[in-house]
Amino acid sequence: MAPTSFSELAKLCRDLESTTKRKEKTRLLAEFLRRLEPDEVAPAVLLIVGAVFPEFDTRTLDVGYMTVKRIFEGGKQTMLMDKPLTIKEAYRSLDEVAKASGKGSRRLKESLLRGLMSRASSEEVEVLTRIIFGEMRIGVNEGMMIEGIAEAAGIEDSIIRRALMLTGDIGKVAKTALTEGIGEVNRISMAMFVPLKPMLAAMSYDIGEVLEEHGGVSAFEFKFDGARIQAHKSGGEVRIFSRRLTDVTESLPDIVEVIRERIKPDEVILDGEAVAVGAGGKPLPFQDLMRRFTRVQKIEETVEKIPLRLHIFDILYHNGKLLIDEPYEERWRLLKSICPNELIAERIVSGDVHGIEVFLKRALEAGHEGLMAKRLDSRYTPGVRGKGWFKIKPAETLDLVIVAADWGYGRRTGWLSNYHLAARDGEDYAMIGKTFKGLTDEEFSWMTNRLQELKIGEIEATVYVKPEIVVEVDFNEIQRSPHYTSGFALRFARIKRIRTDKGPGDADKLESVKELYDKQFAYKSKIDL
Ligand code: AMP
Question: What percent of the chain has pLDDT over 90?
């Protein structure tokens, strides 16, 4: 069979974009996947979800907007090729772009891309550009792709989803499902040093509500104000992954040592939070912590200046056994048996609102963020924000994405300093406010540089950017707004911190904003009585 051309993939993307019906999208995907050769499946699936690499893979294309603009401005140099561009060739070219690094790599990337684009029709160029910027916008996220793979292979969605959860590699799962069938998909297992997605928590507004949801009693742990880490240990080898599944082992030699020296079993995967601590053991601000996660030089010096403390709260794998389907309480029991107490998160199991409030107060006084409530019989669901875990924070904040920024004036001249904040709205982002408050001069300057790298256009004094930077925003109130299409606006918004550990997919959704708006209304009317 002849290799499948990239133009067929581009056509599929157009068809997918033109329908909003889930069933129709599934059918289109399944039909397309069934037609592919075995070794085309993985590249095609990754390209359609706009990923190029599996999520845990640290490689990136690292191509700026300006590079692509230059290629377009240079005009299209059509090469007379008698053979059309194939899916595998397109994928291989992008892989080479990612591989180019170090001195002269910008030029090399540009020339590789120029070569690729010259073989593509205008429709293909459009799709390639979207892939390069990670913005497919054809309504096919991982969840949708799982359904397409399931239908194409005649395997249940849940089996595909589980295999994906364990390997983090949708290309590999798709290939196994389509070419080897259900038996092999079932045999797909987690692998040491391949991170699982962390389980996420739903937001909660009060302790009573959480208790009701969890059947009258729940485990309450301190919610630490740090960064999520997942530690894999096999014999003497330890690797640490961040919340976004990046390998951060090199920056965290102190955490590596703690895991290596103080955790007993041969093979284990642990979930926890790393917190930067200052004098007296109190947590340091988040920005200091992030310096530990991004630092690649002078690590030793930073380790000394910003010591980290590890709080472990879950165990996902233990000497050959995957534990994610075990109840939380069982996992906790095992954790206690292999891990010294001072490394384990503080917690109580309780159904008494007053006692829990006292515990919450203790957490806040110790400089932590609040509490996490965990249902005793809950399974560990990687990547899912379910009701098994609730976060309870006294002051509500929203994680929002910056979609544009205005050039400042007066003291802020030369900085992009007024940020347009948006919540996730389907595949799009809906604005709910602007703010220039909360950042230090150093942060303003960092933001200005970063936003210019992400620039997609400029109109008058406003720079529009690729939605990428997430900020945690404090506010006084959510109001109804005729001004923004979202219908909401934040009153007195202020950036509490820049969340470099979060990506746009982690930002709060417009539904959460609506929910918060309703809750605040309920609360207010209570006070007014
Ligand atoms: P949020 O980032 O607001 O969605 O809150 C969830 C995050 O809180 C998790 O991803 C962890 O990084 C962090 N966290 C802090 N303490 C805990 C804990 N005891 N259990 C689970 N997550 C925690």
Answer: 65
pLDDT(319) > 50: yes
Task: State the pTM of this model.
Answer: 0.77
Mean pLDDT of the chain: 90
Last residue of a domain, one of 357, 376, 392: 392
Which has the closest alpha carbon to 400: 517, 519, 291, 503?
503
Handedness of CA 129, 133, 138, 140 (dihedral sign): positive
What lines the ligand 1 site, CB under 6 Å? 198, 201, 221-224, 228, 243, 273, 313, 345, 372, 391
Instruction: Give CA–CA dist 11/124, Å, rounded.
Output: 8
Active-site residue numbers? 223
What was the pLDDT predicted at 525?
36
Please give the Cα distance from 33 to 44 (Å, whole number): 8
Cα 210 to averaged position of ligand 1 atoms, centre (Å)? 16
Average pLDDT over residues 56-77: 75
Please check whether residue 55 is in contact with residue 96, taking contact to mean a CB–CB distance below 8 angstroms. Answer: no
List the CATH number of the domain containing 156.
1.10.3260.10
Same-domain check for residues 402 and 279:
no
